[in-house]
Amino acid sequence: MLQSAIFKLEFLAMFSSISSTNSSPLTLNPMLNKTQMRNSPLNSPKLFCTPTKIPPFAEICKEATLAEAFCSFTTFSTQHSCSPQGTSEHFYARLLEFCGSQKARLEGQQIHAQIIKSHDVQNSVFLNTKLVSMYGLCGSLFDAHRVFDKMCERTIFTWNSMIASYVSNEKPLEALEMYRKMRNLGVTFDSFTFPYLIKACARVDCLHRGAEIHGLAIKYGYDSVVFVANSLVSMYAKCNDLNGAWKLFEKMNERNNVVSWNSMISAYSRSGHCTEALGLFREMQKAAVATNSYTLVAALQACEDSTFVKLGMEIHAFILKSRGFSDIYVANALIAMYVRFCKMAEAAILFDKFDVKDIVTWNSMLTGCIQNGLYNEALHFFHDLQDSGLQPDQVSLISLLAATGRLGNLLNGKEIHAYAIKNGFSSSVLVGNTLVDMYAKCCYMSYAGRVFDKMPNKDFISWTTVIAGYAQNNSHMEAIELLREVQMEGMNVDAMMLGSILLACRRLKCMAQVKEIHGYILRRGLSDRVLQNTIVDVYGECGNVDYAARMFELIEIKDLVSWTSMISSYVRNGLANEALQVFYSMKETDVGLDSVTLISILSAVASLSILKKGKEIHGFIIRKRFMLEGCLSNALLDMYARCGSLENACKIFTYTEIRSLISWTAMINAYGMHGCGELAIELFRKMEDQRLIPDHITFLALLYACSHSGLVDEGKRILKTMKYKYDLEPWLHHYTCLVDLLGRKNRLEEAYEFVKSMEIEPTAEVWCALLGACRVHSNKKVGEIAAKKLLELDIHNPGNYVLVSNVFAAGSRWKDVEQVRMRMKRHGLKKNPGCSWIEVGNRVHSFLARDKCHPESDRIYQKLAEITEKLKKEGGYVAQTKLVLHNIEEEKKIEVLYGHSERLAIAYGLLSSAEPSPIRITKNLRICGDCHTFCRLVSESYQRKLIVRDASRFHHFEDGACSCGDFW
Fold it and tell me: Is 483 exposed, middle or buried (0-12, 13-18, 19+ CB in 10 A)?
């Protein structure tokens, strides 16, 4: 720092001297002490170097600082004021070269001023060429071009210097324009012209122009010059003409030239031909061509993924044997290779061994941590980077923001944002984009939107990132509005942005918008497989399964996501059988299954309650060695619970080592649907002992369990615990559960008072629960109020009309029943028919009420008649015709009861399944009281366990008793 300060003062003094006198010698004193610098005026001309004998100036420039070089020049000028012009040119040229190498533009301009004052050298073509070169190296193309334009005479070296300036400053088109002017003026090229022109062609990926310049090199006879040939090989490779590059390489006379080999190895590596690149590296070793740092870096970069682990380690061993880690570029390439191999432990060992680390070394480790999901480790590395004394750069910040975003760590993200602002990185488009993404992943779209609005420059990625952020954070309308802004800006919308918009439409369930986006995709020809899969998923989410299926069929090459999207669409829309059919078709293809597909199909199995199929899938999961943890474990637990196998559900829960809140909640829910309310509460207490914090869903499962076990006091206590201990405001579903619980226990007045005292307005679900209890317990007074409220609130749910109609029918109010049915017709609503199904012989057999569509219908009805007669004689069965809520004769009512779908399924189960296996029946509606009695008697008379899942819960019938205790 001191030397730099001295140097600046010396230069100011030097040029004050120049401006006050006409003499050319410059007098600088590099040995000023601090006191002299403070007291000496900046324009003082009285600074002298002590004349000493100095070594040749060229040698000084190789090792000296800029200040020392100028001091030597001053000494020379003082001692040789009358030196010939050639000697002055020599010293000026050396000094200009030194300024160019140090990128010292200001100092170079000062030398330029001194040359202008020295009339004997100001028109020197040689020195002007050196000036062009110096300005080009310092990045000042304006000054270089101004010197070039003022030159009356130019040599090929001058033209070369100007072309080189353009190329080195990323202006390849201007370099090629200079080439055109040279051709028009008839300038004769030399061998040094071609490498710059060839490099310019490579930069603009212009193979046609490169081939033209190649032809000119052949014409001039320079194509055999090694450095020209190397440039041509590199140009063909960068223009993706590997065949042309290889032909040139093979024809080269000097195959022992390391640059040629490096060019080919790099070319193959860049083009993704990594095996060929590494093969060339081996050939190079066999040819005994000495490798250098560029060779090793290119070979290490060719080890692109974990399939090259062995070769990569061999190169590592070669490096250790030949040179160790003396080169920082090779060391960085080694770390980057191990990062690509996902071997972060090995990368960390190498990192610790390096004595010298630059910012690239640290960034490689930061990037590796993020790519391998080690986000906390990335934060630690960043803190170590700051402690090392190195200044984090843009890449470091982007890596760290990515880590904080994935961790959802908003506080750290804000700290990094503040650091970026303080250090001038916030104006960068890349940093801005990453900040938007980080805030979006932290679910703070207000911050993300503010960053986006304040970005001085936005690129297409900026818009894509912010739209995706809004779509993923339930700000769907904002995402759609931003898409309109993109279109108004005249930017082309790509597949990724449309995928985000489809996600927004999916959450909004806006079918019109989905169709509009779909049409736009088709018109613009943007439909790739990712978008096709998304469209299938979105149509399924919006309830249009037919469109989803049609789009699925149009996908020519279906991948795992395609199949999973279609399966999920069917499952979400209650079409479990169709989901299973797609699953069977998928298994016939070569597409493998993943955990997401298995979770979807387990959900389909659970909704159909087909245990045998569920066990098959469980076996497949075990054979394929899927980890029984997380979502997959929870899906298996839920499947067994909903298929009636509470024992297996408990086993899955017990064997799951890491139990999340979802696991505990799923098990509590399993106990609840099987009527084991006490066990559900006990499990909840154990969960609290594990210091897990329950959420709304956990309490909903608990209240559901209490409702199906008649645990009124416990249910009330749980609602209070939820509000006052865990500070969770109950949802309407929680209130509905408590109303249902009170109603089932015939505490209807209390239930009605609770509804009236609710802090939020009761919904149709609340009145429906109250009305259902009123029908069971024949409470007409409260039932009338509930029925009226229900019809006022929800006129589009057919189930509500049916319930009101049944309440009126139970009181023989047939005119009111007819009015309710007429209202249903006016609204185009139909009652869902009762349906039951049973799994027999690896098939699901479905039955509707009084159904005769089954191939074995005659045998089934014959068996059902036999069962009914036996129950009448042995069990005293009498049909409860009061439960038939139709205005028909008694005999017809008995026929209706006898034809209920679950009885047909039971009859078929007794016909087709062997003893003593339980008969498992699933029904889409709540089982009626008469069928409940029928099932109890069948379990006793036939000594067969019946497991019936209705729309409400499970009933385990055994030896004439039901697990529900006649409370359902």
Answer: buried
The answer to whether residues 709 and 676 touch, using CB atoms and an 8 Å cutoff, is: yes
Q: How many residues in the chain?
A: 968
Residue 467 has pLDDT above 90, yes or no: yes
C-alpha to C-alpha distance for 761 and 756, rounded to whole angstroms:
9
Residue 324 confidence (pLDDT): 59
pLDDT tens figures, 259-290? 878 888 888 888 788 888 888 888 888 888 88
The two structure tokens encoding residue 674: 């099987």
**Alpha helix (H) ranges present in 204-257?**
207-220, 226-238, 242-251
At residue 381, what is the residue type? F
Identify the CA nearest to 357 among candidates 404, 311, 389.
389
Are 315 and 285 spatial neighbours (Cβ–Cβ below 8 Å)?
no
- The label of the residue with tokens 């191990």 reads 338
DSSP structure class, residue 40 = S
Antiparallel, parallel or unpaired: β 835-840 and 946-949: unpaired
In sequence order, what are the beta bridge partners of 962? 957
DSSP 589: S
Q: 935 or 744: whose pLDDT is higher?
A: 935
Give pLDDT tens digits for 123-160: 788 888 999 999 999 999 999 989 999 888 899 999 99
Q: Among 562, 582, 588, 558, which residue's Cα sits nearest to residue 570? A: 582
* Rounded-to-integer distance, Cα 132 and Cα 145, Å: 7
Share of the chain above pLDDT 90, in %: 41
Of 546-560, 644-658, 872-886, give the lowest mean pLDDT range: 872-886
Residue given tokens 């000697």 in the structure block: 87
pTM above 0.85, yes or no: no
- Please compute Rg for the chain using Cα positions: 42
Determine contact, residues 141/166, Cβ cutoff 8 Å: yes
Integer angstrom CA distances of residue 529 from 493, 520, 551: 17, 16, 11
Measured in degrees and rounded to the nearest 5, phi and psi for residue 955 equal: -125, 120
Q: Give 390's DSSP letter.
A: P
CA pair distance 413, 498, nearest whole angstrom: 28
Residue 911, Cβ density class (10 Å: 0-12 exposed, 13-18 middle, ≥19 buried) = middle
Find residue 844's DSSP bridge partners: 839
611 pLDDT above the threshold of 50: yes
- Under 8 Å between Cβ of 364 and 389: no
Q: For residue 939, what are its two tokens? A: 């379990």
609 conformational bin, left if phi > 0, alpha if psi -120 to 50, beta if neither: left
How does pLDDT run across 32-86, given as a tens digit for each residue? 343 333 333 333 333 333 333 444 544 545 545 666 666 666 665 555 554 444 5
| More confidently predicted of 466 and 33 | 466
For 442, which DSSP code? T
Closest CA to 681 of 717, 650, 633, 653: 717
What pLDDT, in 10s, does the model give residues 175-191? 889 889 998 888 888 88
Amino acid at 176: L
Task: Fill in the DSSP letter of residue 920.
Answer: E
For residues 821 and 890, is the Cβ–Cβ distance under 8 A? no
Q: Which structure tokens are listed for 155? A: 């040599």
Q: Which of 801, 790, 738, 800 is nearest to 767 (CA)?
A: 790
Q: Nearest Cα to 790, choosing from 739, 832, 731, 833? A: 739
Share in percent of the chain as helix, strand, coil (round to 5):
70, 5, 30
Distance in angstroms (rounded) separating the CA atoms of residues 370 and 186: 56
CB proximity list for 626: less than 8 A, separation 6 or greater: 595, 598, 632
pLDDT tens by residue, 918-958: 999 999 988 989 999 999 999 999 999 999 999 888 999 99
Q: Is the peptide bond before 916 cis (omega within 30 degrees of 0)?
A: yes
Question: Residue 92 in contact with residue 127, Cβ under 8 Å?
Answer: yes
Round to whole Å and give the CA distance between 653 and 444.
Answer: 35
